[in-house]
Amino acid sequence: MLQKIRSNNGLQLFLGLITGICFGFLLQKGGVTNYDVILGQLLLTDFIVLKVMLSAVIMGMILVHALRSMGLATLHPKPGSLGATAIGGLIFGVGFAVLGYCPGIIAGAVGQGWLDVLVGGLIGIMAGAGIFAHLYPGLQRGLLQKGDFGDLTIPRFLKVNPWAVVIPVAIMLILFLYWLELMGL
Amino acid sequence: MEWLYAERWSPYAVGIGIGLLSCFAFLLSDKPIGCSTAFTRTSGMIERFFRGSKVNEKPYYKLFPPVIDWEWMLVLGIFIGAFISARLSGQFKLLWVPDMWSQAFGHTPVARTITAFAGGILVGLGSRWAGGCTSGHGISGSLQLAFSGWLAVACFFVGGIITAFLIY
Lengths: 185, 168
Fold this sequence. Notes:
The complex is a heterodimer.
Chain A: H1 2-7, H2 9-30, H3 35-42, H4 48-69, E1 80-81, H5 82-99, H6 103-112, H7 115-141, E2 148-150, H8 154-158, H9 163-182
Antiparallel strand pairs in A: 1-2
Chain B: H1 11-29, H2 36-51, H3 59-63, H4 70-88, H5 99-105, H6 109-130, H7 134-143, H8 147-167
């Protein structure tokens, strides 16, 4: 049954669209499709972005690991290296603050009517992705390989059952969110 | 149904909803939610339009062929979903300059749009360099307890926080 759904290409495109519509609806309702909210997070005055992200991580982590334990889902951790993940992450971070959006949220910001994003940001992201595609062969031979750690996960690194990490991480993140509320942030 | 028309929902309700969506994506599509490859694919489609099918031969487009896939439809869906939400709450407005920007740098659209373009280049370049964005690494990577996800999200925020303090 699941295999049939997953291999039906037309159905998958439709599911992608429906998932996206729900995702965009939620992002807009959360307020994170606004430049002021993103910059407020990066200036550490408004913690909506972290609250959304961390509650998504807590919920998703528990449910996805439960599906995995029941044999209904397979994890797909992305491979990485210091040269790719850390350097790319820092470049992304600078852009995140300058643009004020990230690739998912930018689509929502356009849907909400932000013209600076439609005319400037959207074209910029595609240009940046195109530049990377052009640089890729050279980078792949050098920098992207530096400090390769593959598709390592924290449970595999610690050589423990995933639930021995899921539960403590969930508790820590909940306590952190609780602390944010106590601090009035 | 009044909640559908509300301007804002609790960030925790929104986060829990996104967690549920992730779970459905793993179950029904065998995919973590991510967004940035859609921009790579679109960029490839545009380049192919101008330069022809030799673009398909670029090594990076062999990894991420310029075609419409699940994730591309997801990003299109985000645009539609945010539009519906903003229309329902009366927040849909065509605007050029965010408040915070106009207080610091004035309200001319040109400066803001050029800055957004420059920031966009870095976001597009950085997300593909890192192999994911705030969705693919930040949410999906973290929830799978992937080492790459936690490292990427730390770097996103370190780079972002330093830059934001330099700007404002």
